[in-house]
UniProtKB/TrEMBL annotation:
List of catalytic residues: 138
Swiss-Prot/TrEMBL keywords: ATP-binding, Cytoplasm, Isoprene biosynthesis, Kinase, Lipid biosynthesis, Lipid metabolism, Magnesium, Nucleotide-binding, Transferase
GO biological process, one term: isopentenyl diphosphate biosynthetic process, mevalonate pathway
Family: Belongs to the GHMP kinase family. Mevalonate kinase subfamily.
Binding residues for ATP: 87-97
InterPro entries: GHMP_kinase_C_dom, GHMP_kinase_C_sf, GHMP_kinase_N_dom, GHMP_knse_ATP-bd_CS, Mev_gal_kin, Mevalonate_kinase_arc, Ribosomal_Su5_D2-typ_SF, Ribsml_uS5_D2-typ_fold_subgr
Residue ranges of domain GHMP kinase N-terminal in the record: 61-146
GO MF: ATP binding; magnesium ion binding; mevalonate kinase activity
Pathway given in the UniProt record: Isoprenoid biosynthesis; isopentenyl diphosphate biosynthesis via mevalonate pathway; isopentenyl diphosphate from (R)-mevalonate: step 1/3
Organism taxonomic ancestry: Archaea, Methanobacteriati, Methanobacteriota, Stenosarchaea group, Methanomicrobia
Subunit record text: Homodimer.
Name this polypeptide is given: Mevalonate kinase
Top-rank taxon: Archaea
Cofactor names: Mg(2+)
């Protein structure tokens, strides 16, 4: 049996706008999905969502990965078992992590010799197929780890402040949220276009600040980015209430992370404020995860 893992991620800036070619800055975080594979006579995929064969309703991302390997190798049967610390459909890159960890595990099992760039590319193709429109961000960051600016694929300094996540526990489908933004953009292109460009400016301005470890300024920009995410309709009252709770208890800044519409918000905070920020989000009704940036991307855990 071979087990591989891949990390989740939070966006400092740029989700949604990155689908339209704007830059984004995204950070791998220290919560992981583990995928174990073993030779078998038929295909079985087991996760908290159920046990299936190739099944695009229950396991669309993993099924698409299996089909890709059927194209490039002699794969006929395999048993795939998924365990995850990343909540499903929550904005923390659960789809990218399960996709990338499965690609790496099947690559190791079948000896297809994929390089990290090949894994990231295949992961992006899978997200595009299932999501409709998808940027390369989640799959690239989750493959490589670290803090990455997209589309340049430029590595920035690892954050050394605390990352506090508040989960609304409202399931949100990235596919649907991306489609909602596209609909709004089709209806009001002259209004939404400039908002998406302004979101792109966050990363252009934020890059230098992240490398300078000027987290006070990074936080201010995250707060501006949050306002623009609200403007394109991906907020909800719980996300707003958690972001204000975090800001009012000492966080540098707070915003939605990922597709929004539910899922999670992220705050960056000085290490000494973590318990106040976590308590404030929890008393506003959020499930809290305190984590940190990681430079460990996809990797083989055991074989
Ligand atoms: N542990 C898991 N086991 C099996 N499938 C998973 C797992 N985690 C995620 N998935 C798949 O990914 C889908 C959720 O992906 P989606 O892109 O909508 O949310 P996300 O990746 O958590 O958030 P975001 O894309 O905003 O970061 C699930 O419906 C499921 O198909
Ligand atoms: C909403 C989005 O920008 C981020 C999802 O984590 C979609 C994508 O980049 O594919
Ligand atoms: Mg996703």
């Amino acid at each position: 049996m071979i087990t591989c893992s891949a990390p989740g991620k939070v966006y400092l800036f740029g989700e949604h706008a990155v689908v339209y070619g704007e830059p984004a800055i995204c950070c791998a975080v220290d919560i992981r999905t583990r995928v174990s594979v073993a030779p078998a006579d038929s295909i079985t995929i087991s996760s908290s969502l159920g046990t299936t064969d190739i099944d695009f309703k229950t396991h669309p991302y993993v099924s698409a990965v299996v089909e890709r390997f059927q194209d490039i190798s002699s794969l006929e049967g395999v048993s795939i078992s998924i365990e995850s610390e990343i909540p499903v459909g929550s904005g923390l890159g659960s789809s990218a992590a399960v996709t990338i960890a499965t690609i790496k595990a099947l690559d190791a099992l079948l000896g297809t010799g994929l390089e990290l760039d090949d894994i990231a590319r295949m992961g992006h193709e899978v997200e595009q197929r299932i999501q409709g429109a998808a940027s390369q961000t989640d799959t690239y960051v989750c493959t490589m780890g670290g803090v990455v600016m997209i589309p340049q694929r430029k590595g920035l300094d690892l954050l050394d402040c605390a990352i506090v996540i508040g989960n609304t526990n409202i399931f949100s489908s990235t596919k649907e949220l991306v489609a909602n933004v596209a609909e709004l953009n089709d209806k009001f292109p002259d209004v939404i276009g400039p908002v998406l460009s302004s979101i792109g400016m966050m990363s252009a301005t934020g890059e230098v600040l992240v490398n300078a470890k000027d987290y006070v300024s990074v936080g201010k920009l995250m707060n501006i980015n949050q306002g623009l995410l609200d403007a394109i309709g991906v907020g909800c009252s719980e996300l707003s209430s958690f972001t204000y709770a975090a800001r009012n208890s000492g966080a540098y800044g707070a915003k939605i992370t990922g597709a929004g519409g539910g899922g999670c918000m992220v705050a960056i905070a000085p290490h000494e404020c973590v318990s106040e920020v976590a308590a404030a989000i929890a008393s506003a009704g959020g499930e809290v995860v305190v984590t940190k940036a990681t430079d460990i991307g996809v990797r083989v855990e055991s074989q």
